[in-house]
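S.,

Sequence below, as promised.
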Amino acid sequence: MNTEAKPLIDLAGILIYLYLVLVIARLLIDRAPGLRMALGKEYFYLYRGTEPVLDRARRAFPPLSGVDLSPLGVLLGLLILKELVTLLRW
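The prediction came back faster than expected:
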């Protein structure tokens, strides 16, 4: 592996991890409407940052008996992507 590419691979891993945390935060906040209202502008930015990916996942994973599986698909995809990036580092 080229040592010059390692910092970029590390950065990609960190960004994937941060996006994973944002998606999890969005899922938890969505389950608590009072918290969503209390956060206001911060939730708006969290929503705008995660909704494009979750929206595409909703098209790929339609609701099953009224349960939205798109967050599960996004989280699984991010975890797999993080592992692939980790493998590239070696």
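The longest helix spans residues 6-30.

Coffee later?
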